[in-house]
Description:
This protein is α+β, with helices and mostly antiparallel strands. 27% of the residues lie in helices and 34% in strands.
Amino acid sequence: MQxxxxxxxxxxxxxxxxxxxxxETSITFDTVVFTPEERRPWLLSHPEDGPYRxxxxxxxxxxxxxxxxxxxxxxAKPAYATSVETTVYVAxxxxxxxxxxxxxxxxxxxxxxxxxxxxxxxxxxxxxxxxRLHERxxxxxxxxxHEVGRKFGRYWDVAWYERPL
Length: 165
């Protein structure tokens, strides 16, 4: 596997991965799938440098996209500028291969030189695999928003984690 910055030509595959989680899981609270064109602004908001990154994992032989990790603005107000929200999405058939670990390692290495103070991650519950991944990277639990999102006819909690940068 290899990790590189995301690019325009990745848009369709990245959208397919994300749409799986929209349709099948509570991991994202989006409820309607996206077209690649609808996801283009998201992709373009993650340039190759700066605090908001998109890292893509590909198979070494076929270059198939296996997953991605991002850092995005935590909140829109200026005082939050040194905080980011991070996330990882792995292709549904590529789990349990260390892809999330590889992606987060590359993402945090890329962010090391940026003027950032904290990373935050919201994990819809239950999600033991995501919790383990975040804790492995130094994230610590800070609290839970109870029944904050409704999807598939039920309410979901989101546990929040933070990590110094």
